[in-house]
């Protein structure tokens, strides 16, 4: 097992700079998810880690050693691909044992290790089948088995669940998590699905346009997003952003929205300077009703009601903006109805006006 | 009546196919029949359209006028060696164009594809001069080796690879620790078997039927291949046409066997990519 470190890692394709100086340290045995929108450079980063792509500048360290000039084989990493990339002409056992065969391991050892891995992943009864005879979930497990059988220092996952249907994705997510508890190897997991990243990873790295926006535990990212991009990216439904003017003193931040309504929140050191700002309100933090004396009260008209069963998603016009509100109490409301809502001052986020996810 | 109208397109198509098949196989049947007749029977009017009784006589005559089995061996040697080496070289070259990025790749590939448009007859004299310069005139090597990395084969295989070999597979093999040669041999080659079979049969037929190259390269009768040897019989006085036809028919047998052996995979190769799998 080994930790992974990136030092000022850069990658350009021609004149386009895809990764703009990344610094990151992944501890030994840690599960880190790289998450970001399409084209943010997360797959490129993974390919550089794997040795399939060459970095333009900077260093990649695995187990404390610079591996820039090492081939994928020499890095002792294993990778699970989005398309599974199973060899179609080989059986499951041959797919899993291919690396060991290349390494000239004795046949008996190959057989034993494939069998052992197959037992962990419940693949024993499929060992003689070809990939075309397997379901999506089974193929995914074989792809993981192929990586696992090698006993690598680092596991790399490139959106491994994106080809599966929703139900199977949840099931496989659980399996990956269980696997990580069994085999505590360093894992770097690329996905564009923030739920996947949040549920699986010890820490999540948010990438946007080749820059790391924030690194933290799922809870940190949710509670204290570093900027509007992270705030908008983490959480489902996504955070609401309302433009406003900030006026603050040493204790209180006072934000006036476009329609003149005013919200107050405790002043925090990471708040931007007074002036134009973006107010961030998570849909689940906006409550229907007047609230208590300390909460911020607003009123708005209901434009849309989306029942999801366990909760209702309401679109309410607040502060001049259409805003999503999650109502866990399934309150009886009607389209066009004016309702009062309130927000706990501690749950208000204030960001510099600019980029959102 | 309506049933007949409904079946008419099908019947017409089948009739058309049957006529086409008859036209295609007529020369084979004709040659087989003529191989069992004497020269005078062949020249009789109307010519005999049935199997005769002179098969053994013709066979004896054939062995008398040419060393048939030696010549057949020469043809087999040239065709089999040429086919194996061509399939190997073309697939290696195609793998290079498919799997690697290098400066000028598209230009080299474009020039190579453009070279397919040059009529082969136009290259005969330069080919002769090159072979002479290399000192391989009058050798079988000159018949199969110079065309073993041909543009058509490389193009055919490379296009097949593009549609049927995922780049993720190459990456997965690299991560598994496979060398370039290993990736080519253990991952890519098994996936392109149909197109290899297609190219093999095309090259085998081309080398077997090749007349022009042996004509300008080979001068020693003991090194003749079938096409050259059978053609040389026409200069014999009172050409024994029965024997020539028998020899011609016998020379077709290896081709038929090769086609029977490869036809299934060849069809798969020719139709691959036509329908998304």
UniProtKB/TrEMBL annotation, chain A:
Q: Which residues form the ABC transporter domain?
A: 4-234
UniProt keyword list: ATP-binding, Nucleotide-binding, Transport
Q: Where are the transmembrane segments?
A: none
Please name the GO terms that the record assigns under molecular function: ATP binding
* Pfam families recorded: ABC_tran, TOBE_2
CDD domains from the UniProt entry = ABC_MalK_N
Entries under SMART domains matching the protein: AAA (SM00382)
Annotated family:
Belongs to the ABC transporter superfamily.
Q: By its UniProt entry, which PANTHER family does this protein fall under?
A: MALTODEXTRIN IMPORT ATP-BINDING PROTEIN MSMX, OSMOPROTECTIVE COMPOUNDS UPTAKE ATP-BINDING PROTEIN GGTA
Q: Which protein is depicted?
A: ABC transporter ATP-binding protein
Origin species, per record, is: Pseudovibrio japonicus
Q: What is the lineage of its organism?
A: Bacteria, Pseudomonadati, Pseudomonadota, Alphaproteobacteria, Hyphomicrobiales
UniProtKB/TrEMBL annotation, chain B:
Pfam assignment, any one = BPD_transp_1
Q: Which InterPro entries match?
A: MetI-like, MetI-like_sf
Q: Does the keyword Transmembrane apply?
A: yes
Q: Could you name the domain of life of the organism this protein comes from?
A: Bacteria
What are the record keywords, sorted? Answer: Cell membrane, Membrane, Transmembrane, Transmembrane helix, Transport
Annotated ranges, domain ABC transmembrane type-1: 72-262
What is its membrane topology? Multi-pass membrane protein
Compartments reported by the entry: Cell membrane
Membrane-crossing residue ranges in chain numbering: 12-33, 76-100, 107-129, 141-162, 183-208, 241-262
The keyword Hydrolase belongs to this UniProt entry's keyword annotation: no
- Family the UniProt entry places it in: Belongs to the binding-protein-dependent transport system permease family.
Q: What is this protein called?
A: Sugar ABC transporter permease
